[in-house]
């Protein structure tokens, strides 16, 4: 699956540099980021994504609070 992604990225001149970056920094360290290697840790977090989402919402809503649809 990862090899297919890398092949596709390398074929497009706009994403070729990104493919090189992935190949250099991420592929050799799959044990550190791939969930299948981290199951013993029982931690699967996306705190950075949630933090970024909070910032985007704050900017988009101009600092105003909004009730979640589920809580209404």
- Sum up the overall morphology in one term: flat
* Helical content class: 40-55%
The first-to-last residue Cα distance is 41 Å
Provide the gyration radius in Å. 18 Å
* Class based on secondary structure composition and strand pairing: mainly alpha
The chain-level mean pLDDT equals 79
SSE string:
HHHH
Concise summary:
The chain is mostly helical and 72 residues long. The protein is built from four helices and no strands.
Main attributes?
72 residues; mainly alpha
Question: How does this model look, in words?
Answer:
By secondary structure, the protein is mainly α. The chain has one domain (1-61). It has helices at residues 2-11, 16-26, 30-33, 47-60. Helix 1 (2-11) packs antiparallel against helix 2 (16-26). It is flat. The protein starts with a helix and ends in a 12-residue tail after the last helix.
């Amino acid at each position: 699956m990862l090899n297919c992604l890398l092949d596709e990225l390398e074929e497009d001149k706009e994403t070729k540099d990104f493919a090189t970056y992935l190949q250099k920094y991420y592929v050799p360290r799959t044990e550190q980021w791939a969930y299948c290697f981290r199951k013993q840790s029982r931690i699967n977090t996306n705190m950075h994504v949630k933090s970024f989402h909070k910032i985007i919402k704050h900017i988009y809503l101009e600092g105003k609070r909004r009730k979640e649809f589920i809580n209404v």
